[in-house]
């Protein structure tokens, strides 16, 4: 109704046209980014389309801050059938959501898809043992290692495994970012009323878990309220014999500011580290990925795979990334030409850098944003306007602007050819939001640490 009212006012519609054409419109359904609007009779569809499609689109975009496709249909439109179908499959797919999906776990991260090598066999077997008897062997299990070495993959594997064996287990997987944001949020609602309903809800949620997994604990360090809340959650669950699993980019002893009491708790269970994979393991990981992602149809020559494994040493995410890049380059040539060392060296250009000292580049920022928000790089570069994509895109604009000295125009080019005013608007938007949004402030600081850990 608000949109229709907006349309009337903005476009100064005469009462008679409004009552005849606009008022009877009904939203039939919203699927992805398309709004289906039901028109009373087939005969008026064409007229309404011609006259009101554009104004309606603009109004919706203005009011919802998101662009939608609009399709007018009438009851006797054949398309109704296909909408029904996709609606049913949507509903259906929601219904069969497994417990693991509801817990926010990726189904592809399992023990079966995890390649075991010397670098991770200890972490792997401790994780498996923990998953087989949660709360019984190692508590807490503390997995640590550098970026892209498989910590998150192992955490999800444990959680997936437990849920597979017991649908009813209360398995709670969260990143420390989510944990922090929930603490902030519950303190805020708690502050408003005396009885602290926010905090109660938070505690109910975390303290009823059978298995709590917190990924990337390093990001709560120094956040006093969050650390405090975590400490109590930990003690509560631990005393009940509930399983706690923590991951971090470094061992507890390296947390300077970490209070001694937290440190000692982390160390009371088992510390398991993951280090960089050796050459054989890197080869095995590439082969596994080729198999799982059905890339065998590209018949990538063995020497090309070896070339990648030789050159990408310290980060499995980059190992996978260069394989993806290789395939993307090949497709860009319309699947012509050979997949050879030359193409591979082109693919690896973005990844090979002087060891450890990595430079903060716009490309790196875009990569990390893509990973953090789980939005593909091509979506970030697209013109899609839905908030799940456009917001991370604006965060990318903001961070590139603030962490590198890339001019607005160049940022626009890197993000799929946007003009400099779009970039400026994005940067300003995030700067404004940061002034009032504590959760965003936390998110940005975490992404910044991912980009530049020092
Ligand atoms: P971390 O959390 O330590 O930064 P991730 O668990 O996100 O790293 O791993 C990065 C990528 O590498 C993921 O896609 C993951 O599936 C993959 N990966 C890491 N270790 C392995 C492994 N041993 N076998 C197969 N894939 C792996
Ligand atoms: Mg991780």
UniProtKB/TrEMBL annotation:
Query: Is Transferase there in the keyword field?
Result: no
**Which Gene3D superfamilies is this protein grouped with?**
1.10.1750.10, 1.10.8.60, 3.30.300.180, P-loop containing nucleotide triphosphate hydrolases
**Record's subcellular location:** Cytoplasm
Q: Which InterPro entries match?
A: AAA+_ATPase, Chromosome_initiator_DnaA, Chromosome_initiator_DnaA-like, Chromosome_initiator_DnaA_CS, DnaA_C, DnaA_dom, DnaA_N_dom, DnaA_N_sf
**Residue ranges annotated for the GST N-terminal domain, each copy included:** 1-56
Primary localisation category: cytoplasm
Q: RNA-binding: present as a keyword of the record?
A: no
- Kindly give the SMART domains that the UniProt entry links to this protein: AAA (SM00382), Bac_DnaA_C (SM00760)
UniProt entry keywords in alphabetical sequence: ATP-binding, Cytoplasm, DNA replication, DNA-binding, Lipid-binding, Nucleotide-binding
Q: Where is this region: Domain I, interacts with DnaA modulators?
A: 1-86
Q: Where is this region: Domain IV, binds dsDNA?
A: 331-454
Q: Which family does it belong to?
A: Belongs to the DnaA family.
By its UniProt entry, which NCBIfam families does this protein fall under?
DnaA (TIGR00362)
What binding partners and quaternary form does the record give? Oligomerizes as a right-handed, spiral filament on DNA at oriC.
This chain's function reads: Plays an essential role in the initiation and regulation of chromosomal replication. ATP-DnaA binds to the origin of replication (oriC) to initiate formation of the DNA replication initiation complex once per cell cycle. Binds the DnaA box (a 9 base pair repeat at the origin) and separates the double-stranded (ds)DNA. Forms a right-handed helical filament on oriC DNA; dsDNA binds to the exterior of the filament while single-stranded (ss)DNA is stabiized in the filament's interior.
Mind telling me which HAMAP family this protein's record contains? Answer: DnaA_bact
The protein in question is named Chromosomal replication initiator protein DnaA
